[in-house]
What we know:
The chain is α+β, with helices and mostly antiparallel strands.
Amino acid sequence: MPAPIRLRELIRTIRTARTQAEEREMIQKECAAIRSSFREEDNTYRCRNVAKLLYMHMLGYPAHFGQLECLKLIASQKFTDKRIGYLGAMLLLDERQDVHLLMTNCIKNDLNHSTQYVQGLALCTLGCMGSSEMCRDLAGEVEKLLKTSNSYLRKKAALCAVHVIRKVPELMEMFLPATKNLLSEKNHGVLHTSVVLLTEMCERSPDMLAHFRKLVPQLVRILKNLIMSGYSPEHDVSGISDPFLQVRILRLLRILGKSDDDSSEAMNDILAQVATNTETSKNVGNAILYETVLTIMDIKSESGLRVLAINILGRFLLNNDKNIRYVALTSLLKTVQTDHNAVQRHRSTIVDCLKDLDVSIKRRAMELSFALVNGNNIRGMMKELLYFLDSCDPEFKADCASGVFLAAEKYAPSKRWHIDTIMRVLTTAGSYVRDDSVPNLIQLITNSVEMHAYTVQRLYKALLDDISQQPLVQVASWCIGEYGDLLVSGQCEEEEPIQVTEDEVLDVLEGLLVSNLSTPVTRGYSLTAIMKLSTRFSSVNRIKKVVSIYGSSIDVELQQRAVEYNALFKKYDHMRPALLERMPIMEKSASNGPTEIVQTNGETEPSVVEPKHPPPVSQPTNQANDLLDLLGGNDVPVIQTSMPTKPASAGGELLDLLGDLSLSGGPAPTPAPSVPTPQPPFLLDGLSSQPLFNDIAAAGIPPMTAYNKNGLKIDFTFERANPNPNIAVITIHASNTTEADMTDFVFQAAVPKTFQLQLLSPSSNVVPALNQGTVTQVIRVLNPQKQQLRMRIKLTYTHKGTAVQDLAEVNNFPPQSWQ
């Protein structure tokens, strides 16, 4: 058989291929020749054939049939064969294939070989693809080589030990004695790998972390020598002595100094020296400075040192390199909560980054800008952010609008400024705002009594200019319906009033009803506004005509409204003025939860926000168990009402404890005639005679954290209902520490069969980022037997475009909540 072609010739031949098909044909032809050679047990050219096979593997072609040939090369006595064999093993084998276990004995023999280069090959291979079984078998040999005087072997043994610890953490203590002596080595390669090994051990074991904290002075001394040493051509990179080792030492110091006062104190001086003496003109120096900043921020450093670190990040923001600017913005965003004032000094530089062409830098700058907003700089920062909102790409508008709303609500210097700011957002990015912005703005306008005339005039002008922004149109329609009389009368004192007639106002609203730009929701707002104006304007006949036209609309919602409004004009005309009178001031409940304020005979009292219930009876009983699947067992049955005369219905679902009882205070359905039997107390017994939340009193029950994972935190606060002490009222508070909103948030809960549970409507389905707001929801739990409270919760939400679902069990309720 002729000698196979050399690797160099194969590479040259493959590179001449003009098409993918031609290359594939060459590869297949060569693979066939290699297979034939393997079958004939050709020892002479096995090394050459495996080398060619590895090249084909790197090009993406299958080469698994060469695995056993690699093992034969490893068993060879020739170094050139072993080198290719071990390289092939690292590329073609991994711990998922049993073939790799056949190497264990060869590696063990080579670890004890007389030639250091053969030992080095074995260490590299074990450190690259050794399985947990191989690591257990060979850890003793690795530990022995870690103590050798040969620096070439010690550095490779240290990296191999890192792999062994990752695979078998319980072997960590075996390497402890040898690791202590590694830091006294002069060789930089050994020093570097020993720091990597120490870092791995400290990250994996708190005991090791405490043990190695006494090495901090030695690490500080090594770092100081690196900074103060003169030019060393062997380790110099752009004028800096061994930056790779410096970065590794800084990372290890960060781990050792975290939450430890003594270690932090020992490294404060050297960190200050690194921060002030490192050259920043080259990227190498910036890398060291960045690690220094991270270390300063993670340990218990002095306040002056933290300010120095933030100033370094501020200098990074002026760098021409986009990567460095992005890193600086990300780091400042993490530190802004703890060192707010120091970061504020770089506010103008951060705001300038909003104009950057790079979208990732713009996003980070926007997030950091919102984090810097406070009561002192709200006007200036909002001016910059609104300018950014005008000119930014559509992908930023939703987040920017949400941020402006939250900041304005928290720090608004006056109600007029607040209203002007939100209206500016609606006019520039109305299509991108969140769904809750419309009711929130309506509430703000309603509560600002002195601003009603000014607001309705501004909104009317905005409506004349643009009706494409649906949230703006909805708010404007609502305000015109409520305060149209102020618009026509020209009572605005805040700015020059405009002259508007009733017909002009109605023309605008009718135009919204027929516009192709209007959504069904917007048309509903407009029709209701026209109806409300029937008590404020004199053009009642025109309004009657408009309303009657939409009584036959193909939009069911619009048709229903029009039919009901027609009935008000005819059968209930005497009630119309009272029904359409101006809305009272709306107040947010203390818990931001399930109650809303309604007006009854001039007196304000709370009423239930009625949760939507599934239709009764129409589904099989076993579907009532759907939500309880989250409990992971059958020990928690569906909660049923105790009315034996009622048919089984979907009222057994966890969120529908009350069967067909009306939550709005209406009469309950009459049961079939039977002898009255005493009923156990239910969560909402007597609902027709008293409100749901009747004198809820705080019971001095301490709050608790029920869930804290992936940036989402769920806190429980507790209250006791006075009429029935067996009912515990739990308010959940969901907060989000991450940098992106959590949308489509749903909280579900289930309890054992001895309890009854009702879950009321949440305040929102969006948990704002960076703790800029919370979502609240009220749970009522009936515990007649005073048993210890247990609950399983299910959380679903969308974060950064990814759907997340998690289950948790809560068993640590404070005793006061259930006793």
